[in-house]
Design goal:
- The chain is an all-beta fold.
- The protein has one helix and 32 strands.
């Protein structure tokens, strides 16, 4: 584990319309010129090609500044501190960066592994966890200092090292993740145990879990199985944890299409008594019963879905697609399960994020170097924001939701 030198210009701020940013000053000094403000309408946009973050605010639909020097942000993800002031950025190069949104600066950056895939933050905001491909396992850090707290190597019951995927936070200081190579689900429980978590291993979950998600109530941990035609779920409220195959045999007898991009389970749409799930390698969104996971319908859509994201009120689900259909977004009306709107923002739509109450949605259009903002009742585009090869969009209200 190494600590990388900070960028020469910590938190370089750029192009902040309407704000006096002290241009030319290092980030920490420039922060002093920012007017006091809240953080509930802030967010960050990952600019993967340049290793930078664009700090935005949703009230005025504007960019406040750019923070550079965050390394390889391919497949980067972000979580927020409980007070919504700090963003923790997980880079593919193993980098873990703590960013001060008000100071517009990199607070600290470490390189904790050789290849990482996402992270999570504990419900009390004390621990930041990172899931690693290389060397595998999950590492935990103090969120204030980014000093190491604990490490749980991923070694399966045959003694082989494994990549870890699908890392999520759970209530009461717990985390869950899956072993891609080992076919296991692990839970780490820090409650009342300081820096030595109780680790519980669940065996025989199926082959090659590629991602995981926890429902918003913290009850169900669900992993998608790339090596099988099924999902596996774990009832975290049960006294005895037992894996259960669900949607087994989906598509049996059909010829699957080539998989251009694995769907992201983080974007599952939970609406009422249903879940809307992107099907793997098919032009379908699966509709399943939220309690039993029994199929309700398979909704034909424009391409292979990547994200199926519910508007916060649950009335709509917005869907984007893998190449070569990734210029399109479709809107599903949940009660009727009908496609009620299709828009074509442009090449390489990668991500969508709703404002907290869902009146607008922000869409990253990577190859157009642009963020589009649409209102979600009449679907009118209301703003464009320039961004350099934007990918993930993350708003600070995520700080108060389980598993994101």
């Amino acid at each position: 584990m190494t600590t990388s030198p900070l960028p020469s210009r910590r938190g370089l701020i750029a192009a902040a319309a309407g704000l006096s940013l002290g241009a030319g000053l290092p980030g920490r000094a420039a922060a002093a010129t920012l007017a006091p403000r809240g953080t509930g309408d802030l967010g960050v946009i990952v600019e993967r090609a340049s290793g930078s973050l664009l700090v935005v605010e949703t009230s005025g639909r504007s960019a406040l500044g750019r923070i550079e020097g965050l390394g390889d942000l391919s497949h980067a993800s972000v979580v927020f501190s409980r007070d919504e002031r700090y963003a923790f950025v997980f880079g593919r190069d193993g980098g873990l960066t703590k960013v001060d949104l008000l100071g517009m600066a990199v607070e600290k950056r470490i390189v904790q592994a050789g290849n990482a895939i996402g992270g999570a933050i504990s419900d009390d905001g004390r621990l930041v966890a990172v899931s690693n491909y290389e060397p595998g396992g999950v590492r935990f850090f103090d969120s204030a200092s980014l000093e190491p707290v604990a490490e749980v190597p991923a070694v399966d019951r045959n003694g082989a090292k494994s990549k870890t995927v699908g890392l999520v936070d759970l209530p009461f200081g717990r985390f869950a993740w899956s072993l891609y190579d080992g076919g296991e689900i692990w839970l780490a429980d820090f409650y009342g145990r300081g820096t030595k978590p109780l680790v519980t291993r669940i065996f025989d979950i199926g082959r090659q879990p590629y991602d995981g998600v926890v429902t918003a109530d913290g009850r169900w941990y669900v992993a998608g199985l790339f090596g099988e035609d099924a999902l596996v779920r774990l009832d975290l409220w049960a006294d005895s944890l037992r894996p259960e195959r669900v949607l087994a045999g989906y598509g049996k007898g059909d010829a699957p299409l080539p998989v251009y991009k694995m769907p992201h389970m983080e974007g599952w749409a939970a609406v009422g008594d249903r879940l809307l799930i992107p099907a793997v390698g098919r032009h379908e969104v699966l509709v399943v019963d939220r309690e039993t996971f029994r199929p309700v319908a398979a909704l034909p859509v424009h391409g292979q879905p990547v994200f199926v994201v519910a508007r916060p009120d649950g009335r709509q689900a917005w869907v984007n697609y893998a190449h070569p259909d990734n210029d399109t977004v479709e809107v599903i009306d949940v009660p009727s399960l009908a496609i009620v709107h299709r828009l074509t923002p442009g090449p390489a739509v990668l991500h969508m994020e709703f404002t907290p109450r869902g009146h607008e949605v922000w869409i990253s259009v990577r190859d157009a170097d642009r963020i589009d903002v649409h209102e979600t009742r009449g679907f009118t585009k209301v703003a464009e924001i320039a961004a350099a090869k934007p990918s993930g969009i993350f708003f600070t209200p995520r700080a108060h939701r389980i598993g994101v």
